[in-house]
Amino acid sequence: QVQLVESGGGLVQAGESLRLSCAASGRTFNPFNNYAMGWFRQAPGKEREFLAAISRSGSITRYADSVKGRFTISRDNAKNTVYLQMNNLKPEDTAVYYCAANRGVVRVDSYDYDYWGQGTQVTVSS
């Protein structure tokens, strides 16, 4: 069974931080470093938005302009986990956050990702 499971979401106030985790399991993700990973989010009534992506080794990262300087993506291949550190959160960051796996290189388009988690809700109050 292939699974990506996000955790770490919640309700915070503006200016606070959260760290999201995404754990991969299943034979498909063995080894985990066969996959580039990405984070996306979707707010009610809006399209899914790319946030950040990281290469298989973790040496290359890419960010959307909307989160550059505030969010940091990282991965621990020994733990089959990718993280999204989110600092200085704003009310407009409120959304469901998804991680995704792509058997290739860093991508920003959601259509290039093969596997998705179920999402975790992040709510930022003003």
Provide a descriptive summary of the structure in words.
The chain is an all-beta fold. It has no helices and eleven strands. It is 0% helix and 48% strand. The strands form two sheets. Strands 2, 4, 5, 6, 9, 10 and 11 form a seven-stranded mixed beta sheet that branches. The chain has a four-stranded antiparallel beta sheet with strand order 1-3-8-7, with no helix packed on it. Strand 5 and strand 6 (61-63) form a beta hairpin. It is globular and about 40 Å long. The termini are far apart. The mean pLDDT is 95.
Name the descriptors:
126 residues, seven-stranded mixed sheet, globular, mainly beta
Summarize the structure.
The chain is an all-beta fold.
Return the structural class.
mainly beta
The number of helical segments is 0
**Biggest pleated-sheet summary:** 7 strands, mixed
Number of strands: 11
- How much of the polypeptide forms β-strand, as a percent range? over 45%
Helix fraction, binned, reads under 10%
Q: Topology as H/E string?
A: EEEEEEEEEEE
What is Rg? 13 Å
Distance between the termini: 40 Å
Please state the overall shape, judged from the principal axes of the Cα atoms: globular
